[in-house]
Structures are given as C-alpha cells and as structure tokens.
Amino acid sequence: ELAVGALVNATPGNIESFFVIQMGELAKYTALIVATVVYLVIHGAYGLAIPAIQRHSGRRFVSVGAFALIPATLDLLVFMPLFGAGLLGTATAAGWVGASVNTTVSSLVYSGTLLFVAADFRVSYPERLKVSRRTFVKSVAALVLGLAALVYGLDTLVLGPSRTGYKTIAELFANEVTPNDEFYVVTKNLIDPTIDAGGWNLKIDGEVSSPLSLSYQELLARKQTELYVTFECVSNEVGGGLISNAKWSGIPLSTLLSEAGVAQDAGYCACVCEDGYTEGIPIAKALDPRTILALSMNGQPLPKSHGFPARVVVPGLYGMFSAKWVNRITLVKGEYKGYWQQKGWTNSGEINTTAIIRVPKDSSVSGPMVSIGGVAFAGVRGVSRVEVSTDGGTSWNAAVLKPPLSSTSWVLWEYAWSPSRTGRYRIVARAYDGGRTLQGAKPAPPFPDGASGYDTIDLSVSL
Q: Whole domain around residue 81: which residue ranges?
C-alpha cells in the first residue's frame, strides 16, 4: 500500500488521468496486486539462501528467522522511509511499534510458509521435478492463453466507456437525485480513512483573528443549510459517468470563516484532510454562501467514501475542490496549490458546460418513436438551452428542459423524435449556459482543465 501510494503521488497528472479514464478505481487495485506480487517475488528470492543457512546452522527455526530478518530490516529501515512512512514506520497510523511488530510477524509467517512448502516439495520430488519438453510447451501455451483471456476480459470489463445510460425518460427523471451508493467516487487512496467522530475536530486557523476548533457534535448542533449540488470529476470524459447529483446539508463555510475573522490579505483556504489530501479554495469562493461544510448527504450522515464526518462542498468547481475527511482549514496569503494541482491539474476549476445523452443507450436499437434525454450542467452558471441533432450535427433542435432542483444542480432534458427512415443515426447534444454561451465544440481531453466537446451516440432505427 505504501509503495502504491508513493507511486500514485509521484505520477504526473496527465499519465494518472489516462489510467483513471481507462480503468477508473480499478487502476489502483491493479497497481496494488502488481506491487504485492513484485514484493513477494523479491522477498521470496531470499529463499534461495535458506538451504545454505540451514546446512550451516542445522536448525530450521534459525533459517526462518534469518530469512525473515532480512526483508523486515529492509522494510523498516529502507522502504518505509523511502515511501514516506518514516524510519521504522513512525509516520504510519500504527506508529513505530505497531509497524515493527506487523512487519516482523508478516515476514516470519511468509518465510515459514515458503520453507515448509519447499520442504514438502523436496519430499514429494526427491530427485527434483522433471518436466518433459511436451509438458513444458503445453504449460507455456496454457499460460499464454490464460493471459490473453485475462487481457481480453479486462479490456471488455474495464476499458469500455464509463457511460451511464437509461432505457426510458421516466427512469432518467427518477434518478435526478443520485442515490448515495451510486454517486461516483474518486479517491487517491487504496484504503480510505476510518474516522471516529467522537475524537475528530475541525480547526480553522492561519490568516484569521480568532482560530476555531469545533467538534463534530458542536457542528451538528448548528443550523444546517440544504442545497442540491451536482459534482463532476475533472477527469470525466465527454459523456462520461463521473457526474452525480445529491442534496447536501451542512453549515455555510462563510459562517465559520466569519467567526474566525478572515484577514484582509487572505487569498486561499488550504484544506487539509485525514488522508493527507490537500486542496485550495479561493477566498471569494469560500465566502460564497452556497459553499458549505457538509455533514450529511441525501438526508443521511456522510458515507465513509464521501468524507465522513465532514467534507467541503464547493458548487461550480470540479469535484476535487470539495475535499473529503477535512480536519483543518488554514487561510493563507496568495495562491495555494493542492494535491492534484501540484500534478498539473487546473487551479481555477470552473466546470465546463456540457450536455450528456443518457437516453437511449449508446449503440441501441429503437422503433419509430424515439425519446432522447439526458443531463446538462454548467456549474453555477446554470443552463439556458439544450439542442439535439439527429443527423450528426448538421441541424439542431431545441430540447425541453426540466426546471432544476437548484441553481447549483444539473438540468434534465428530453427531446421527442420521429425518424423518417430505417437506418443508423448519429445523435449529438450540446448546451448553452445561463449567459447563453454555447459549450465548446472542439474535443479536448480531461487533463488539465476538464474535457470539452459534444457528446454523441449511435442509434439504429427500425421502422
């Protein structure tokens, strides 16, 4: 986990964006599996020295101890400091004692297991395993076929488009508010922090006149503000599924900052989180009454994956600005660059206008009456118009907009179409923000400022 975390932290934003887009959250777990295999192979290589150690000592437990001591020492004195966990694991949640005991015991178990497996192998094959050329060829062929099947399965399961689609407009409208367990999740962590709200405090300090420290219960006792806010991940592709809408409840951040007394030269709020994540919010955005410290989501306490006990919700900016598991907000002078911004992602974060087609599903087949629908979003600028083209962008027709739940949520839209012939059609959608500015037509990847371009699907019509 430490190795993968260090690798993720060191990976440039454009490379990381590629893996997030292609594999989503599975990218981190794939990296963990690879790192685990490499770790076991490297430490398992020390097993080659076991026979010599055992012949010299004559005692099996001495071989196990020696085999375990080498990797444990390397882990505690070399790898942990290298990966940011401190000497002997002092910077881990378990501390140096817990890290030392865990590492040593794990190495003992692993070395003992390998030793006894090797001993059993020697008993079963006293003259060593003899493999014929035919058996070797068959084994290699089976391995190659297995790897090919795995790659094909991953390509089909993981690397496919991450679109969210519905069969009907009614189903689309029924999901105007995204259920908590379906709300998209992006995190830098392999394992998200588990926080005891009883011992948690939010600190507000830095360029303020009266620093604050507030417990979870003190925050819950305050008057709560409710607001529907749509989140979109900056790494979301055009038409992608990393966009969701929920009702957030909490305390306006401006209220807490006013109590702390914001200094005139404060430029950014630097949010620091339990998992080491950092994010900067421009002071003007932090003082916007729609920016809140959220304690609940869709009427329930924040789920762990969405930042329990508290997260910041910043309407109009990409989701990375709405920091989860926040425990400190420090006001600083000038600009502040957070975790993702240090990797090259945008520090302005204003959400690009987009229209997404969710009905019908891409590459589906439809009859003579076609209902086309989806969502449109332009951050806090609102959406004034959505247009649909059924001929690949040659002509455009206005869609019907459903009134949004709030000025900070997405807009649902629909368009009824009667095709004149059987065939295959390219459906395109585009949106105008509240100022009647058309979204960008030129395709652009998510990195570094968010994706742009028109969403399209292919549809087969059978009359």
A: 2-129
